[in-house]
Recover the amino acids of this structure.
């Protein structure tokens, strides 16, 4: 992701902020239209899941900013272990019946909703930044759901090897 794309996403979040509930409503309406099976996944929890999803997008932006300013902290090429909350979001989604096959509809619904709520501010460059972010998060979620995510090999504070599970690894990376 380029610094310009990061800036476009940050600007988008500022514009969306006051309309967050409306965007969430349009996102779920579009998602349920595209993929009716997902209705049971989000039953009664759309607001909570929306907060988690937006938190993951914001964590991705923070990760990209850190990446531009520092060297990578692991040799792992897996973003899903570096984006705060993506592992938990994917695991919860899977437990509720969500499947990786639903993720293209999730991306489409989100992009459709962001486009509607940003209006003219959703130009080609902003759309590309959002598409990139959606793709990274969807790919990361799919890898977690399929148990393909690679845990980083960071030692803990006492020099012990990294935990075996991805969830424990995520906690190790972001607990400091």
């Amino acid at each position: 992701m380029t610094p310009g794309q990061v800036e476009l996403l940050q600007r988008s979040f500022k514009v969306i902020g006051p309309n967050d509930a409306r965007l969430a409503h349009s996102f779920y309406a579009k998602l349920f239209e595209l993929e009716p099976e997902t209705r049971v996944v989000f039953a009664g929890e759309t607001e909570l899941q929306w907060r988690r999803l937006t938190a993951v997008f914001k964590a991705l932006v923070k990760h990209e900013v850190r990446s531009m300013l520092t060297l990578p902290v692991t040799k792992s090429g897996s973003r899903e272990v570096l984006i705060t909350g993506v592992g938990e979001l994917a695991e919860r989604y899977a437990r509720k019946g969500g499947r990786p096959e639903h993720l293209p509809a999730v991306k489409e619904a989100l992009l459709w909703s962001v486009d509607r709520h940003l209006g003219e501010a959703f130009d080609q460059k902003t759309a590309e930044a959002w598409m990139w972010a959606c793709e990274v998060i969807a790919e990361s979620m799919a890898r977690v759901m399929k148990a393909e995510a690679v845990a980083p090999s960071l030692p803990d504070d006492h020099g012990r090897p990294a935990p075996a599970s991805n969830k424990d690894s995520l906690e190790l990376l972001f607990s400091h």
The chain has one domain: 3-174.
